[in-house]
Design goal:
- With about 220 residues, the protein is an alpha+beta fold.
- It folds into 2 domains: about 35-80, no CATH class; about 85-215.
- It has helices at about 5-20, 30-35, 80-110, 110-150, 170-215, and strands spanning about 40, 50, 65, 70-75.
- A hairpin with a 5-residue loop joins strand 3 (about 65) and strand 4.
- The longest helix is centred in the last third of the chain and has 47 residues, at about 170-215.
């Protein structure tokens, strides 16, 4: 009767016990696909840590995901503070406002000349308003000079010992005129500031329009 050599039998039994070659030790599918086997984070003292999970106290901090070779494959940003979120929202609104203004420029004007024409109209309007305010200021100054001359006839401005006390209506008129003169001077100042601001804004619009037309930059 034929007998298998003892060494051959032993090898055969070992192969059967091991199972098919594909039946290797199972691996976590997600870890095998993504290589996400560890995390890296920094504590409040600046010390870098590694581990298979991030402690709860650092779960909202910036951390990195490493593959089996220790290479960073993804970064997880730290949770933002309310102040940071508000700053981001403000920045996003500013970016969107600039984009809308670019679209406005491109859809409203056909040339720099169009912008210049509108600028001149706006500035002319402000100049006219300033001229009216200046005329009113001149009339107020004339009126104030007359009231002050009358006030010199009464106490406490008159040096005449027999002078009467200044009438209440004259004192009230002086106060009203001085107050109105101050208000009108403030209006004149604001109109000058408005004039300068409008001129700057239109110049900025013309510069930006030229950039957009020449294609040097895309709409913001």
């Amino acid at each position: 009767m034929f007998r298998w050599p003892a060494l051959t039998v032993a090898l055969t039994l070992a192969a059967l016990a091991a199972g098919p070659a594909d039946a290797a030790a199972p691996r976590n599918k997600n870890s095998a696909d993504k290589g996400e086997v560890s995390y890296k984070w920094t504590d409040e003292k600046g010390v870098v840590h590694y581990g298979d999970h991030v402690p709860p106290e650092y779960a909202k901090s910036e951390r990195a995901v490493l593959n089996q070779d220790g290479v960073v494959i993804r970064r997880l940003e730290a949770e933002k503070t309310p102040e940071q979120r508000a700053a981001d929202a403000l920045r996003d609104r500013d970016i969107e406002a600039r984009r809308q203004h670019d679209r406005f420029l491109l859809t409203t004007y056909t040339s720099v000349k169009d912008i210049e024409t509108l600028r001149d109209q706006r500035l002319e309007q402000i100049v006219g308003q300033s001229a009216s305010a200046r005329q009113y200021v001149d009339s107020l100054n004339t009126r104030l000079a007359g009231l002050q001359a009358k006030a010199q006839l009464f106490r406490p401005y008159s040096s005449d010992e027999s002078a009467r006390r200044m009438p209440d209506d004259l004192a009230a008129d002086l106060v009203r005129t001085v107050s109105e003169l101050r208000a009108q001077n403030n209006i004149l100042l604001s109109k000058q500031q408005e004039h300068d601001g409008v001129a700057r804004q239109f110049q900025s619009d013309m510069d930006r329009f030229v950039e957009l037309q020449q294609g040097r930059t895309a709409p913001r």
